[in-house]
């Protein structure tokens, strides 16, 4: 069908695709009428393997899928398999247990971070305590008028 005629009937061009003078129209009555922006094949067997790699919402009620097809699927799966094997070796777990292992490590990290914060607070308090003792001792020495070097206390106000 000519592009102008398809647009006049209400067909929607998706994703900013560029179309030739003749286009195919996908019409699902009562649902959607769109210009076909895909690869044309006589039979789906020509495509071979087909793997959806992502699916996103592009607007209200409209989804977009991205896929690899044919020989590209094997390359895509080989790359994914290599990543899974590397993660399995790194986490010392079976491929099907990688998700649980990551979750466990995240929980362990969170616990360790809380413990570290607690220790940091205790260390800060421990550093402050000796400073407080030095201030009290200096005050007693500076405010002591005893000739024997004794500190004035409530009991020994009249030491000398």
Structure commentary:
It is a single chain. With 160 residues, the protein is an alpha+beta fold. The protein contains three helices and four strands, in the order H-E-E-E-E-H-H. Strands 1-2 form a two-stranded antiparallel sheet. A two-stranded antiparallel ribbon has the order 3-4. The mean pLDDT is 79.
Structural descriptors:
4 strands; 45% helix; 3 helices; alpha+beta
Q: Can you tell me the residue ranges where pLDDT is under 50 for at least 5 consecutive residues?
A: none
Integer-rounded radius of gyration: 38 Å
In whole angstroms, how far apart are the ends? 117 Å
Largest sheet: 2 strands, antiparallel
Q: SSE string, helix = H, strand = E?
A: HEEEEHH
Helix amount, in percent? Answer: 40-55%
Total strands: the figure is 4
Oligomeric status: single chain
Total helical segments = 3
Average pLDDT metric:
79
Approximately how much beta-strand content do the residues carry?
A: 15-25%
Strand order of the largest sheet: 1-2
Query: What shape does the CA trace take?
Result: elongated
Secondary structure category = alpha+beta
Architecture blueprint of SSEs:
Layout: H1 3-8, E1 25-28, E2 32-35, E3 50-59, E4 62-69, H2 71-91, H3 98-142
Antiparallel strand pairs: 1-2, 3-4
In a few lines, what is going on in this structure?
This protein has 160 residues and is α+β, with helices and mostly antiparallel strands.
